[in-house]
Design goal:
Number of helices: 6
Largest sheet: 8 strands, mixed
Number of strands: 10
CATH topology: Rossmann fold
Shape: globular
Strand order of the largest sheet: 1-2-4-3-5-6-7-8
Strand content: 25-35%
CATH class: Alpha Beta
CATH architecture: 3-Layer(aba) Sandwich
Order of helices and strands: EEEHEHHEHEEHEEEH
Helix content: 25-40%
């Protein structure tokens, strides 16, 4: 197995963006493609590593870029400033995500009929929002994602299967938000699952997260369990 990565550049409204596609170079033919939606700081090495791990599982991992080539926040303030326009304008976010999904479909390594999305923190919200549009994806996975409904997708049917992997003690998505998500997904006719991990806060998959006062703490057990849950889910939806 030889995992190779390559840059995929694309343009929106006169601005250049750079995603990283990872695939097993020894695997012939098309394979399912999985979008990797980044957290609030932008597309980082963390996301590229997740794309590589997806490639090891036989998929084409696509670490997308929502902010622009080379744009990466380095502080809480910068990260918030980068994310806020998308959180405040979910239609813009959804439109951009759907365009990026089409870019993934067009890659030669990818089976255009088998597309999924995963995401972490803000990226978890992104993965959920792709599903909320009613897009024709096989499934989406949110890791410790923000769960609040966008407000512009009520009445739409969700075609993608949904898996939400959640820290029960996540202050950024408290139990009332989890209950609201379940109600929303049920009303949208979604095939959905929720795995909640006790004693677990936000950003539990990120080994660098260590700020209990902010609510972001790495949890090795939840990290491992959630990845296993994702692998099972992807095997199901692409089977």
């Amino acid at each position: 197995m030889t995992i190779k990565t390559r840059s995929v550049e694309y343009d929106f409204e006169g601005k250049t963006f750079e995603a990283i596609l990872a695939a097993d170079d020894g695997q012939s033919g098309e394979r399912p493609g999985v979008l990797v939606c980044h957290a609030w700081a932008g597309r980082s090495d963390f996301d590229v590593e997740k794309a590589k791990k997806l490639a090891e599982l036989g998929y084409a991992g696509f670490a997308l870029d929502l902010y622009g080539k080379g744009v990466l926040g380095t502080s809480t303030e910068e990260n918030q400033a980068l994310m806020t326009p998308f959180v405040e304008d979910r239609s813009m976010l959804q439109s951009r995500l759907l365009k990026i999904a089409d870019i993934l479909r067009a890659q030669p390594e990818v089976d255009s009929g088998k597309i999924a999305a995963i995401g972490f923190c803000f990226g978890g919200l992104c993965a959920l929002d792709i599903a909320r549009t009613g897009a024709d994806l096989a499934g989406v996975v949110s890791f410790h994602g923000l769960l609040n409904a966008p407000g512009n997708t009520a009445g739409k049917k969700i075609k993608a299967k949904v898996l939400a992997l959640h820290g029960w003690d996540d202050p950024m998505a408290p139990p009332k938000d989890v209950e609201a998500l379940g109600k929303e997904l049920t009303e949208a006719g979604a095939d959905w699952q929720l795995h909640a991990y006790g004693g677990t806060m936000h950003a539990f998959t990120n080994p660098e997260a260590n700020d209990p006062d902010f609510g972001t703490v790495y949890n090795a057990a939840a990290d491992a369990r959630s990845w296993i849950a994702m692998k099972t889910f992807l095997a199901e939806i692409f089977g």
